Amino acid sequence: MAKKKIRLGLIGCGGNMQRAHVPRLVEDGRVELVGLVDTAEEPARLLMEKWGSEIPLYMDHKALLKAETLDGVIISSPHSMHYEQARASLKAGLHVLIEKPLTTASRHAKSLIETARKADRLLVVSYQRNFYPQHAYVRELIAKGTLGEIRGVVAYVTQRWAGRGWRGEPTLSGGGFFMDTGSHLVASALWMTGLQPAQVHAFMDRRMEKVDIDTALNIRFSNGALGSLHFTGSADRHDERLAIQGDAGCVVFHLHQWGIREVLLNGESLVVPARIKEQSPDASFLRWMRGGKGYEEADFALQVARLTEAAYKSADLNRTVRVAR
């Protein structure tokens, strides 16, 4: 049986939409792009070249939603715009795939999750690591108690992160390296472990920029586990490690230059069952729209938003801050 054709609108036509999302939509073969949103014509034209045909361009999401008949939207715009664009799309009855972070304010993240639930629409946050087989399998192992009770989380991510364009403007980005690339690491840790952050003490250094470049967090989770997470945007390349320690075992992830190098379970290479296949946020989004199983609400993204919000507050106040519940 042929896959159902899906009509999508794309909000934000920059490099991430062009290089990550569009190739996955092309690969699906049954997606029709019926409208683009961007305030600049050049990135939209580059996107059309990658897609291979002309697509109507709108200057804001309201015009797109009013003019076109859509099944869903993909949002890859500056972080501070996510809430308004996603909320309007959900209220218009559309499914939403949105780039991380879900929002820059936890109250907005909670509102979007509730809006999606009431509208019976998908709200999928594009945290790629959550779709890797290794991450999905470790989440299973933790849930069934293979590592025992989680006692600690130690992690870091590094990158030569320059905060170019809107990412370096606080009113558009909501924050710097921690809000941007760092959000992936936070999401991985919380999604796999199911831990709920209770307190955080953060230190941030802007390195003479408008937004944070380097960040260190100490976290106490609600079950008593402790965490230490570092985010270094002033490094020369991407490197990433995440160690999750339980009272019955441990797992360590190593990612380098945006690929998984190694995952160790109790010191041995992790063997992932063949039943767990590699996916992408886009392929999963399209499958769920067509009626596939496996979708879960984005509650973990609310935990990410709450921890992120508390971390920035802690850095500003230079003291430990409680994380909202």
* CATH hierarchy class name of the largest domain: Alpha Beta
CATH topology annotation of the largest domain: Dihydrodipicolinate Reductase, domain 2
Q: Main beta sheet: strand number and arrangement?
A: 9 strands, mixed
Q: What is the count of DSSP helices, taking H or I runs of 4+ residues? A: 10
Shape descriptor: globular
What are the secondary-structure elements, in order, as H or E? EHEHEHEHEHEHEHHEEEEEEEHHE
Summed up, the domain count is 2
Helix- and strand-based class?
alpha/beta
**Terminal-residue CA separation:** 45 Å
Strand percentage? 25-35%
Mean pLDDT: 97
Low-confidence stretches: none
| Strands side by side in the biggest sheet | 14-13-12-11-7-10-9-8-15
Could you walk me through the main structural features you see in this protein, from its secondary elements to its overall organization?
This protein has ten helices and 15 strands. By secondary structure, the chain is of the alpha/beta class. The protein has two domains: 6-128, NAD(P)-binding Rossmann-like Domain (Rossmann fold, 3-Layer(aba) Sandwich); 129-279 and 297-322, 2-Layer Sandwich (Dihydrodipicolinate Reductase, domain 2). The strands form two sheets. A nine-stranded mixed β-sheet has the order 14-13-12-11-7-10-9-8-15, with helices on one face. Helix 1 runs parallel beside helix 2 (41-51) and helix 6 packs parallel to helix 8 (181-193). The protein is globular and about 55 Å long. The relative contact order is 0.15. The model has no long low-confidence stretch (mean pLDDT 97).
